[in-house]
Arsenate reductase
Amino acid sequence: MQYTKVYYLGTCDTCKRIFDDLSLDRSLNNFIDLKKQMPEKVEILSWFDKSELDPIAFINKRSRQLKGKDLDYSKMNKSEIVDLLLSHYSIIARPVFVFEDDVVPGNSKKSVEKVREKLSS
């Protein structure tokens, strides 16, 4: 299965390592640098609908933009999570692989393995 889009941060060494590990070419049109182009609100909502994950999984909780903010993600609704994600590109867990039937965010081993499996099917 092929991804339709990949959102990443061009300066993120972890993203680069994952792309190299998966033998992916970042120069393709469907690779979108979050620093240059943020997704629309409706697109992020579609990520939530396609993914089996809780919308909280799309939040990069290690983002410097969230340091010092005492946020209780469990009490946030989808709209509030989208607004949080759109407030700064570093808050989106990356990379975000968008497939026809699924969306896989983040750089955990589990996420990378899921992307690897989807790419090989």
Observations:
- The beta strands are 3-8, 31-33, 96-99, 103-105.
